[in-house]
2-isopropylmalate synthase
Amino acid sequence: GREYWEVAYLPIDPADIGRSYQEVIRINSQSGKGGIAYVLERDYGISLPRWLQIDFSPVVQAYAEQQETEVGSQAIYELFCKTYLNGEGRWALGNYQVNREDNADRLQAELVRGSAREKIAGSGSGVVASFVDAMERFTGKQIVLVEYSEHAMSQSADAEAMCYIQLNIAGERYCGCGRSEDIVQASLDGILRAINAAVIKHTQAA
């Protein structure tokens, strides 16, 4: 009778064919969250928290389906920047000032979009809470900070920090990221980009 193999796959060391484990990572429309996160951390020092991996994975998969090909490392990075870091044509954070009064932080800031300027103000326990309060007043929407994560991009003293933000805005969740040598700036930029994402979604739906 016929003989059948006992295993479905033959184990192979990539070194046996002149490759490395890193080189055999391939991202396509069927790829999971782990492969995408691995590529970003390996090549760009971006360590995505689990909840952002879940949010970003469908973006990469949709792009792979559209292109009908595997997605390279640079394309994944560009998608990440476009989705979470790109602030072009949207509100950006200008000058801001924080004062501590009566056990609360009071923030005054300026939002900038082209030639438009808007003054905002808010208060809370910490700079982040103060900025969220200011943006609630500015947008008229309830905003809740759901997830917050940060890390340095390298080990040097002047390394940039990456901050990952997820907000619940009027019952829907949006993500944004900020990158700066100043962790406070990175945090506020991440919050603003998540809010911008909500504005864009509702503008497109209108």
Observations:
- The chain has two domains: 14-85, 92-205.
- The first helix runs from residue 33 to 44.
- Residues 21-25 have pLDDT under 50 and may be disordered.
- The longest strand covers residues 92-101.
